[in-house]
Amino acid sequence: MAKILIVDDEPHIRLLLEQTLEDFEDDGVELIMAENGAEALEIIKAERPNLVFLDVMMPKMNGFDVCKAVKNELAMDDVYIVLLTAKGQESEKHQGLDVGADVYLTKPFNPDEIQAMTSNILGLA
Questions:
Q1: Which pTM was predicted?
Q2: End-to-end CA distance of the chain
Q3: What is the longest distance spanned by two Cα atoms in the chain?
């Protein structure tokens, strides 16, 4: 069964992503939530989600550090990471890609784009 981890310290963003992705539960996809980077890293180690929507600016551990740990230290190349951030500067985009993010999206995001991307990544299209 495919798993999607939604990581954001803002409850309304987690809810928005959950609502955007909840139709995938009909396809047997499990949605998992985390509210900070440290919690996200523990869940990624334990659950090995297929796809992670990861906020950059969070307490305890930021998204760049989580991504770097997953991709470089744990070598979990099979975990697809989408970094989400309110900051759209090129330098941050490069930093995100440098630490191993598969995609870098800025907020506010388009729910239709998130759904299409999820379908493609999980092979449900």
A1: 0.95
A2: 16
A3: 38
